[in-house]
């Protein structure tokens, strides 16, 4: 009965290793109790625990070797003991039998076998002895939850074994046990037995009749998943929105991020669904870094729920009629930071790194983060649908794709009119997608120095801004984001993918990073599009093909008379012209403009004065701890003014490192190749902030004055590194007056 719990739990594990290990634990625990049944009871538990320790060490070693995990046995045991429960409940289905996912079920099985055998054999309480295996079996079924088919034959076998055990061990009265009783006493005893047996049978039948409908009603119900109560691995901002890294990579094209060797990516005449529409025969391979499906009008995000996974990842059902290619990649991390792991879609096996996986987006992360020199191997199944069917394919709708169809409030009116124009001229879904792709490719230019940003205002400026002011030019970030938003406005489920392009083997540099949009079609799955212009094409002005809706219809013309007048009408004298007695229009316009300029100047002067007063109050009032905190507020406000705000989840030292990179490297996502030998002034300020946070009396006036000087110098240096328009608006920006710490 204890071993059957291992069979029930093994349904969510990859392979049969866990089932065999738990069967061994069940047999071993019961055999120890049987062999030691003649010993004193207090000796059995220590003896069984020693046997458990030996068996556990052997089982964890076997699981580690099967999973190719490095490290000694002691390190594996400590890690499994500290993270066993969390990793078991956050692991991706199927769960790989590694030491941390095996330890808890193995120990629970051994203890259940020990408790059941001791109660049933030594105490003779067979029914009570069935309780530990029953609890173990129920726990295994609960842990599996809705992640496997109903367990039928193990449950029937468990109930059958319980019935057999009760029947075999049920004692009968020995012959002559009631021989000394009188006839009246014997009759009364038999009557009592009959009545109690009938009453017990009636109670059992009543319980069956009462509970059977309830139990039967639960058969088709979906059990609760205990994994929803456990927090899955989280990622940082750069991993949640890697789209913002495109501009930084574009400015450093020679920076080596990865080394890749790809096997099985042979050229084909049919473009891959995950590789966009390359020319026939192209051997381009695209490594996906992240799939972004959520857009709130400001930021595209992955929005993934990651689960710890083993080497084998859950299979994804391919589109009907698709061709599947197995692609094996050996990837070595060079200068890529974060937690996201690049891989060809769709990954099925991962070796060399402990990963977490989101099957909805196909995104991989390494919870421990990427480090230079990390080498891992991914085996992917690349899907190639029959794109000959795409011209007539429809797109899904409804709640299943609400995430990919959602359009946040605040869409600029020109974008809505452009989407309506493209949809009006193209009825079929593919025709709409192709029209958006062609419009972007023909009217816009790819540049490396375009600023990052894909919020509605950024996209509106990218699409309709004047060329001489920086509009109508951008990186693949703006092209992919604009395509996805315009597609959603026309009813297409879209998403944005960030990744790298490689020819198959060799280094992957920052210049190979780009973003592309994808559209979901019925029967085909996600199909990528390429809205980037061809290298030698000269973009046409947007005004040639985008027809703004006129504000007022043109006046109707009066038809010309068809009959000539018979007589010339008499001339009528014009009315005398009146002299204007009011204020001239020029004076009104000039006075109004002057008043408006004076009002704007007054508002700007008030903002400048308020900002200076705020800075003086922060740096000059209060005790030293308050002044140091005010200096830190000046630094964080400067980061916001520079368009690089920091999240509230970062420590002061992390914020300082982020701030230092902005003035040293110029981009927030640049990784430092060497660690500086001396702390920067901002990091000194972060140390002061940490000191006064935990010891408010740990700073004096000199430290507070030094902190104010650091904040002032950093704000001046950061402002000088900004574009001209930011430098002009810096002292009059009202944000610091209303921003909360």
- Beta-strand proportion: 5-15%
**Approximately how much helix is present in the residues?**
40-55%
Q: Helix tally?
A: 23
Let me know the largest β-sheet. Answer: 5 strands, antiparallel
Q: Please give the alpha-carbon distance between the first and last residues.
A: 59 Å
Gyration radius, in Å: 37 Å
Please state how the strands of the largest beta sheet are arranged side by side: 8-11-6-1-15
Question: What would your notes on this structure say?
Answer:
This protein is an alpha+beta fold. It contains 23 helices and 17 strands. The chain has helices at 2-9, 17-35, 41-67, 73-90, 99-122, 126-129, 131-144, 153-169, 183-217, 237-240, 246-251, 402-405, 413-425, 429-443, 456-464, 476-489, 585-620, 624-641, 652-664, 681-694, 701-720, 724-729, 735-738, and strands at residues 256-263, 285-292, 294-295, 300-301, 307-309, 323-333, 340-341, 347-351, 355-358, 363-365, 375-384, 445-446, 473-474, 494-502, 505-509, 513-521, 525-528. The strands form five sheets. Strands 8-11-6-1-15 form a five-stranded antiparallel sheet, with no helix packed on it. The chain has a four-stranded antiparallel sheet with strand order 2-14-16-17. A four-stranded antiparallel sheet has the order 5-9-10-7. Helix 1 (2-9) packs antiparallel against helix 8 (153-169), helix 2 packs antiparallel against helix 3 and helix 20 crosses helix 21 (701-720). It is globular and about 135 Å long. The model is unreliable at 267-282, 550-581 and 669-677 (pLDDT under 50).
């Amino acid at each position: 009965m204890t071993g059957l719990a291992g069979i029930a739990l093994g349904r969510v594990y990859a392979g049969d290793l866990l089932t065999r290990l738990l069967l061994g634990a069940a047999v071993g625990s019961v055999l120890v109790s049987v062999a030691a049944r003649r010993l004193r009871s207090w000796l059995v538990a220590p003896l069984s625990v020693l046997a458990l320790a030996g068996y556990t060490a052997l089982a964890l070693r076997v699981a580690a070797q099967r999973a190719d995990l490095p490290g000694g046995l002691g390190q594996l045991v400590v890690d499994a003991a500290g993270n066993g429960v969390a990793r078991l409940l956050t692991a991706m289905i199927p769960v790989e039998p590694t030491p941390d996912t095996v330890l808890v079920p193995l120990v629970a099985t051994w203890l259940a076998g020990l408790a059941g055998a001791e109660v049933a054999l030594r105490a003779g309480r067979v029914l009570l002895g069935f309780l530990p295996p029953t609890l173990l079996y129920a726990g295994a079924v609960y842990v599996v939850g809705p992640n496997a088919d109903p367990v039928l034959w193990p449950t029937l076998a468990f109930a059958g074994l319980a019935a057999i055990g009760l029947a075999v061990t049920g004692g009968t009265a020995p012959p002559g046990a009631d021989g000394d009783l009188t006839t009246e006493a014997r009759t009364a005893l038999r009557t009592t037995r009959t009545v109690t047996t009938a009453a017990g049978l009636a109670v059992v039948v009543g319980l069956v009749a009462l509970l059977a409908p309830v139990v039967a009603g639960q058969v088709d119900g979906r059990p609760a998943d205990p994994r929803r109560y456990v927090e899955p691995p989280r990622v940082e901002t750069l991993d949640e929105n890697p789209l913002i890294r495109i501009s930084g990579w574009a400015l450093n094209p020679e920076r080596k991020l990865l080394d890749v060797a790809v096997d099985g990516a042979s050229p084909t005449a049919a473009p891959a669904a995950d590789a966009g529409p390359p020319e026939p025969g192209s051997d381009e391979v695209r490594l996906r870094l992240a799939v972004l499906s959520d857009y709130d009008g400001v930021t595209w995000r992955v929005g993934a729920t990651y689960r710890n996974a083993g080497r084998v990842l859950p299979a994804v059902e391919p589109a009907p009629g698709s061709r599947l290619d197995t692609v094996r990649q050996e990837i070595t991390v060079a200068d890529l930071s974060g937690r996201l792991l690049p891989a060809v879609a769709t990954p099925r096996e991962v070796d060399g790194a402990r990963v977490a996986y989101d099957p909805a987006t196909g995104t991989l992360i390494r919870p421990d983060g990427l480090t230079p020199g990390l080498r891992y191997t991914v085996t992917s199944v690349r899907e190639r649908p029959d794109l000959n069917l795409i011209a007539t394919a429809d797109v899904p709708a409804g709640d299943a794709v609400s995430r990919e169809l959602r359009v946040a409030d605040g869409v600029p009116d020109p974008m809505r009119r452009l989407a309506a124009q493209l949809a009006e001229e193209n009825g079929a879904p593919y025709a709409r997608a192709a029209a958006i792709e062609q419009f972007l490719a023909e009217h816009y230019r790819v540049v490396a120095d375009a600023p990052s940003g894909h919020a509605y205002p950024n996209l509106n400026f990218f699409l309709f801004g004047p060329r001489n002011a920086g509009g109508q030019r951008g990186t693949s970030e703006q092209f992919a984001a604009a395509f996805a938003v315009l597609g959603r406005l026309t009813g297409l489920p879209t998403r944005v993918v960030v990744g790298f392009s490689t020819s198959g083997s060799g280094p992957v540099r920052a210049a190979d990073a780009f973003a592309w949009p994808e559209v979901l079609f019925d029967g085909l799955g996600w199909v990528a599009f390429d809205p980037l212009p061809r290298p030698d094409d000269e973009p046409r002005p947007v005004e040639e093909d985008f027809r703004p809706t006129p504000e007022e219809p043109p006046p109707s013309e009066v038809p010309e008379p068809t009959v000539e007048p018979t007589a010339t009408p008499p001339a009528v004298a014009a009315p005398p012209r009146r002299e204007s007695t009011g204020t001239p229009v020029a004076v009104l316009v000039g006075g109004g403009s002057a008043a408006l300029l004076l009002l704007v100047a007054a508002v700007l002067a008030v903002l400048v004065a308020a900002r200076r007063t705020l800075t003086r109050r922060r740096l000059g009032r209060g005790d030293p701890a308050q002044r140091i905190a005010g200096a830190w507020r000046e630094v964080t406000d400067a980061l916001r003014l520079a368009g690089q705000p920091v999240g509230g989840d970062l420590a002061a030292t992390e914020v300082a490192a982020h701030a230092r990179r902005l003035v040293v490297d110029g981009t927030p996502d640049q990784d430092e190749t060497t660690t500086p030998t001396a702390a920067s002034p901002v990091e000194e300020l972060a140390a002061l902030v940490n000191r006064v946070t935990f010891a408010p009396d740990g700073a004096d006036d000199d430290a507070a004055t030094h902190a104010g000087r650091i904040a002032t110098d950093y704000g001046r240096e950061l402002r000088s590194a900004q574009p001209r328009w930011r430098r002009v608006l810096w002292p009059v920006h009202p944000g610091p007056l209303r921003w909360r710490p």
